[in-house]
Amino acid sequence: MVREPEHNLTQVYGSKVFNDAVMRERLPKETYKLLKQTIDLGRPLDTSIAEVVANAMKDWAITQGATHYTHWFQPMTGVTAEKHNSFISPTQDGRVIMEFSGKELVKGESDASSFPSGGLRATFEARGYTAWDCTSPAFVKEGTLYIPTAFCSYNGEALDKKTPLLRSIQALSKQAVRVLHVLDNEDVESVSAMVGPEQEYFLIERDMYIKRKDLLMTGRTLFGAMPTKGQELDDHYYGNITDRVSSFMSDLDNELWKLGVSAKTKHNESAPAQHELAPIYTTSNIACDHNQITMEMMKRIALRHDLVCLLHEKPFTGVNGSGKHNNWSLSTDKGNNIFDPGQTPEDNLQFLLFLSAVLWAADEYADLLRASISSAGNDLRLGANEAPPDVVSIFLGEQLTSILEHIETGKEDDKTFGGVMMIGVKTLPHLPVDTTDRNRTSPLAFTGNKFEFRMLGSSDSIADANTIINTIVAEILSRIADRLEMSTDPESEVKDIIRGILKEHKRIIFNGNNYSEEWREEAKRRGLPMLSSTVDAIEQLRTSKNITLFAKHAVLSPLEVESRYEIQLENYIKTILIEARTMVQMARQEIVPACMKYAGELAEVYNNTALAGFAVGHDKLKKLTADIALGEQRTYILEELVEKLKPMGYTAECARSITNEMIPAMDSLRECCDGLELEIPSSYWPFPTYTDLLFRRK
Ligand code: ADP
Ligand code: MG
Questions:
Q1: For position 164, what pLDDT does the model report?
Q2: Which of the following CATH numbers is that of domain 9-159: 3.40.50.300, 3.10.20.70, 3.30.70.260, 3.10.20.30?
Q3: What letters, b where the CB count within 10 A reaches 16 and e where it falls short, cover 136-152?
């Protein structure tokens, strides 16, 4: 019998997840109720229920084929970590039973000395502890029960990306609830940040991938002349999906659905060989876990299809890079999206207040937003080939901007503005959700009922960016709540607050083309922070303004901030040093020898008496040998720089030398080698070219 695909899908979806339905079925009523209060309302976890939950979880996991469990965590490497333990427990008579205790569910201990801690963990205290995060559901994958956890040191300092995210979620909820209570929403108990991250990626042939040391070692190409065709014809964007890619995508969808990841949209992206997957949005914590699962599955499933998935922000120079659009909104526990303009007068004012709060947050903490998405890979992407620039601004669209400006100037009862009939702010019409999205150049665009933060790099965890968004908005909401709670006339106070925000922070609104040179000039005039490299951006984490912010909302202690700064710095330095060393090797061991071989053969041909008078040929040989010599020289310069920086350690000074000296040296070596690629016959070139990687398919 042929089964309906939808029928299949509804059975497959979430089948490997210890989700709400499973919990309701398998947990005693009282236990279920207590656990739900923690999950839905953020109440403290009642550890007395752990034993019962652990047992139910284990029994269910065994029916899904699990023999092991793991505390799954997200160290500051940006990828996930897991250590598997089996459920087996030996019995007296030499057999085993399957056991899993409440203690094992709630807390784990692991030797974590090899994870980055940024000096937080003394060498004598190498242990790390994992704590169950019940707000993200456990799941079974390849015979193991995965339990999402937070990871911290002996002293409780966060050693992962999830702990600060959870803290920021809590802070944001607390402050948003305060504001909502003043605005007559006393029934709201909690507010969740909702996130839908769109994930971009490239797929290339595995055969070609393994022939390139740069892709193997760094995830991106360090050499490669532009192919004769790029993306200028726009023939890939939303184009037909080939059979191979299509079968990869459906495999991926299936695996993700089983794990409860709601993969929804898939399409080809602008660049050749580039694609995108978007899930349906969920709470920012789960979205973060799901995005990690998605990235991991993309890599794994690509291999099954003899493809390799590249998640690097800029795998190919001169071609679009890959980002991650973080769609963010706020939802009350009653299911209302606070950024939905709404249809009732009260909603409108509340909506405009929260909208303005984000403006304020983004302006005052633009430096932190920039820092939250910085990495060596993303530096290559921002501001190039249709990626947002490194200057933070907000797109609101003309209609909303004009509504806010009318409040600012006190003319909110003006009947016509923004090209739409208005009868004052109080009856703001339901704004259409902007599906066409008129401005795709903005780093932070308001798109109808959510903000789309487009600066995130494709390989990054979304945890950092969301931790920052949640924290800075929490801070602004706390200031607003302070004022509103003191006020006797909240409505006029709200208008006053909006007016004040507009006056002070209007400069963050920019509805024009963010890719243009004029915008850079304009942004400079407006005094918006321009942080063009990771080194400058991460310094912002530890300004006293920002350290105070993190401490006030208990998101990161000063020590934790410092450790994160150090880890990012170290990561930046290591990443580029690996790239530089890889370039040196490829140039010396592959490119130069290949070119020499051709030059030698060319010389032989020209020495042949029959061709001796072929003057053009001699010029060609002269140029080729000169270019090879230049390549060798630039390789040597880069190698010297690597040696010079080695003793500097992972310091800001070293990072600066990398930005100012090493990256230009890498660029100039590349320029020379890319020129050589076009000078010699393709059959001599030692590894697959951009044309091969981007266009040749099996
Ligand atoms: P586009 O490419 O036009 O931006 P996509 O459909 O590719 O749109 O992605 C939009 C993303 O935004 C999806 O992940 C979607 O679930 C998410 N999203 C939609 N509404 C909200 C919301 N209120 N809050 C957070 N994310 C949302
Ligand atoms: Mg999209």
A1: 97
A2: 3.10.20.70
A3: bbbbbbeebbbbbbbbb
